[in-house]
Structure formats: structure tokens, C-alpha cells
């Protein structure tokens, strides 16, 4: 028996809320890195451990999450994920009230573990909750809300975490600014905890309806499935390994740039002493002007939203370009431009480098789905094994940012862009090799998808 259409639509909207929530929570990491650097007087390397604590969950939890979904089903797995996220938020609240950085890292890992389970569970639900012929449209819509969440997260985080906080060399963080930043972290994760609690209650109430939908409509397995046998299958294919390395490098570069962006823009070598960004209508409106000369850390943190907003816009443009350009050529173009922008920032610097750095997000937008499908077309392993391995490779977001933080601590934020430039250079090589070796079958890809 088919469930009522109204109930199915309501369930789909609630799943879409999950996409928005994990997008916003993930992008909160960017202003949080700048905040903990000032609150706990950390080096760039130590501050970037916040990013590592979050993204390492993808590498450690993806395969266990797949097993959990298989045993419990997507609906019950979502309940487990939301409960884990609430525990993560409560840990973050404790960290803010006790001012303990180790608890911040623990809270971020627990929160990201829950999000990993959500990503394994929610994609098939979004596809299944409605008419089968519209599953692609529903998943695209849900992913669009995810991108919107990543756009809003840095604005919210900068407003709450970075008010009055400065971390430039020689700057002193006042007790008042430190207390305000800790209070902002407490406020953000308190409300996130409340939102997740409401979603948990709703899914608990609607669990039977969702199970009916999944029984009445055969649902394809989620991309991020796995297990010991699938991992061995994935490791048997050279193209799966190469594609996994490409995902590792892409996610690492994207996350490293985003998490350092506020600190980079706030530096005196870029926007710290300039009022030019406020003369740009869109940038000035998003940043806000506190009336003080130059770009403060809070204003720079809000500008990070433009980096993620570029990714949202780029996915729409990339979809149109794929009608005319092959996936390998589009990836080569995007990786080449991103590399050139990184080199410009590293070698030229100045106020213009701030605009160049923000624009990298536009070219990042198409990379994840293109790498994903180019690898699937060429891998000799099963699609399930290949997809699961590529999802695990998102752990690059835990490895590359500390390296960038180490370089920035020694040479400065601009020169540290050499690290993502190398990542993009290797992605350009991947695209060229993939273009020279046609895949087994053509795959249509929705560029609304992402990590």
C-alpha cells in the first residue's frame, strides 16, 4: 500500500532539512578554526586540528556506518546518527563552558561521525520519498539545500565566534573577546542541538511511514556503502586507488583553503588594512562594515561564505558546460584555473589575492562529482566498492589542512597556498590521464552532488 502523498512530501522535506543542517554544521568549521586560534592561543597547525578532528570521521566511520545502515535500515540509522550528533553538540557545549580545546576536538569528531552516518542514510531516502521518475530531481534539490547551508554557516559562525577577536601577530585577545567567542560557540551548538532534537523527535514519529516508503519502492543502495569484501574489491583496481587519491587531494585542498580563508583575508598583507572590499556591493553587504579601517577577523569570516557560495553557483554552471565539454576536459580546466589562482595568491599577494582566493570555490564546485564519475567509468572494481572507497577518501580533509597550517605558520598564509596548488596540479594530471583513457560507459552526473 502506497503511503499518502502528503505524508511522503512531509517526510522528504524533513530529510532535506538534514542536508541543510549538515552543510551548515560542516562550514561552521571555517570560522571555528579562527576562533579557537585566538581563544586558546594556538599555532596555525594546532588550530587546523579542528578540521582534522572533523574530517577524519569520514575515513574511520564510513564503512561501519554502511554496516549500521544495512542492519538497521536507513530510518533507524538516521535516528542513531541524530542521537550521536546531539552527543557531539553536548560535548561542544561542555568544551565552550570549560574552555578545553581537547573537548572541542572530541565534540567535532562525534558530530562528524553522526553526519557521516547521515550521508550514508539520507541520500537513498531523498531519492525514494516520492515518485520514482522524479528521484533525480529530489536528490538534486536536497543537495542544493546542502550547498545553501554551507553558504550560511560561515556567516553565522563569524557573527557568533569572531566578534572582537583578533589573532594577528602581536595582537592580544582580551578576556572579554575570549568570553564572547566561547559564548558564541555555546550559543551556536545549543541551537544546533535543539534543531537536531526536533528532527530526532520527528523521525521517531514518522519512522513507520518512512519504512513503508522504502518497502513499497525498491531503493538503490547508497553510494557510500562498504564492508571488508568491498574494500578488498576496491583495492584490486588501480583506477579506484588513483581516483581515491584524487578525491583525497581535492577535499584536502578545498577544506584547507576554506578553513584558512578568514585568517588569510584578515592578514595585513591582504585585506587587513584595506577598505576596498567594502566598495564591492555583494562582498560589502555580506561582510558588513563595523566602521573601523580595514577588514576585521569577523568581517573576513563572513566573506568565507562567498568561497562556498561560488561552489554552489559553479555546480549550476558546470551542469550546463557538461552538455558541451567532456567531463575530463572540464575537470582539467577547473583544476588548472584553481592551481593558477593558488599560485597567484602565493606569488603576487596583495588585496587582489583576496578576490582570487575566494574565486577558487567557483572552480572547486565541479571537481568532486567529476572525479567520482570518471573513476567509476574506469574502475575494474564494482560500483559499490569504488563508491565506498571514494567516500572514505574524503578523509583528505583531515590530512591536508594541518600541512597548510604548518606552512602558513612558518612562511605566512599566502605562501601556504603552494600546498593546494600542488594538489590541483596532481588533479590536472589525473584529468589528462583520464581523458586519454576513455571509460567503459558514459555516466551522467548531477553537479548538485558533493561531499
TrEMBL record:
The chain crosses the membrane at residues 12-29, 49-69, 76-93, 99-118, 139-162, 188-205, 239-265, 305-323, 330-349, 355-376, 388-410, 416-436. The keyword Metal-binding does not apply. InterPro entries: MFS (IPR011701), MFS_dom (IPR020846), MFS_trans_sf (IPR036259), MFS_TsgA-like (IPR050375). It is found in: Cell inner membrane. Keywords: Cell membrane, Membrane, Transmembrane, Transmembrane helix. It is a multi-pass membrane protein. Residues 11-439 form the Major facilitator superfamily (MFS) profile domain. This is MFS transporter. It comes from Sphingobium rhizovicinum.
Amino acid at each position: 500500500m502506497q503511503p499518502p502523498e502528503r505524508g511522503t512530501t512531509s517526510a522528504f522535506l524533513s530529510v532535506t532539512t538534514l542536508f541543510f543542517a549538515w552543510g551548515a554544521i560542516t562550514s561552521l568549521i571555517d570560522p571555528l578554526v579562527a576562533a579557537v586560534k585566538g581563544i586558546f592561543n594556538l599555532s596555525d597547525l594546532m588550530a587546523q586540528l579542528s578540521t582534522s578532528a572533523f574530517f577524519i570521521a569520514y575515513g574511520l566511520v564510513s564503512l561501519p556506518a554502511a554496516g549500521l545502515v544495512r542492519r538497521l535500515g536507513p530510518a533507524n540509522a538516521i535516528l542513531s546518527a541524530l542521537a550521536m550528533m546531539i552527543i557531539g553538540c553536548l560535548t561542544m557545549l561542555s568544551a565552550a563552558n570549560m574552555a578545553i580545546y581537547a573537548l572541542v576536538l572530541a565534540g567535532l569528531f562525534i558530530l562528524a561521525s553522526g553526519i557521516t552516518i547521515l550521508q550514508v542514510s539520507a541520500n537513498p531516502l531523498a531519492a525514494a520519498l516520492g515518485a520514482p521518475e522524479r528521484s533525480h530531481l529530489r536528490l538534486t534539490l536536497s543537495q542544493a539545500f546542502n550547498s545553501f547551508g554551507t553558504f550560511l554557516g560561515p556567516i553565522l559562525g563569524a557573527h557568533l565566534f569572531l566578534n572582537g577577536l583578533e589573532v594577528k601577530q602581536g595582537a592580544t585577545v582580551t578576556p572579554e573577546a575570549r568570553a564572547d567567542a566561547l559564548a558564541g560557540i555555546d550559543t551556536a551548538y545549543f541551537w544546533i542541538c535543539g534543531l537536531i532534537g526536533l528532527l530526532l523527535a520527528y523521525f521517531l514519529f514518522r519512522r513507520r511511514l518512512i519504512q513503508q516508503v522504502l518497502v513499497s519502492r525498491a531503493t538503490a543502495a547508497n553510494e557510500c556503502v562498504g564492508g571488508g569484501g568491498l574494500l578488498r574489491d576496491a583495492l584490486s583496481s588501480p583506477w579506484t586507488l588513483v581516483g581515491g587519491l584524487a578525491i583525497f587531494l581535492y577535499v584536502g585542498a578545498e577544506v584547507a583553503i576554506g578553513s584558512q580563508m578568514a585568517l588569510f583575508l584578515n592578514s595585513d598583507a591582504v585585506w587587513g588594512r584595506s577598505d576596498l572590499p567594502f566598495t564591492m556591493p555583494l562582498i560589502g553587504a555580506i561582510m558588513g562594515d563595523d566602521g573601523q579601517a580595514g577588514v576585521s577577523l569577523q568581517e573576513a569570516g563572513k566573506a568565507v561564505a562567498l568561497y562556498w557560495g561560488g561552489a554552489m553557483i559553479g555546480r549550476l554552471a558546470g551542469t550546463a558546460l557538461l552538455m558541451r565539454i567532456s567531463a575530463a576536459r572540464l575537470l582539467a580546466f577547473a583544476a588548472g584555473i584553481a592551481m593558477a589562482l593558488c599560485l597567484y595568491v602565493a606569488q603576487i599577494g596583495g588585496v587582489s589575492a583576496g578576490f582570487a582566493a575566494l574565486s577558487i570555490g567557483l572552480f572547486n564546485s565541479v571537481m568532486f562529482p567529476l572525479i567520482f564519475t570518471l573513476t567509476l567509468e574506469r574502475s575494474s572494481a564494482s560500483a559499490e566498492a569504488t563508491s565506498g572507497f571514494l567516500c572514505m577518501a574524503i578523509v583528505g580533509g583531515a590530512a591536508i589542512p594541518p600541512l597548510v597550517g604548518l606552512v602558513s605558520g612558518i612562511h605566512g598564509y599566502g605562501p601556504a597556498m603552494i600546498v593546494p596548488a600542488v594538489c590541483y596540479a596532481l588533479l590536472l594530471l589525473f584529468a589528462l590521464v583520464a581523458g586519454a583513457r576513455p571509460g567503459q560507459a558514459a555516466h551522467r552526473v548531477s553537479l548538485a552532488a558533493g561531499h
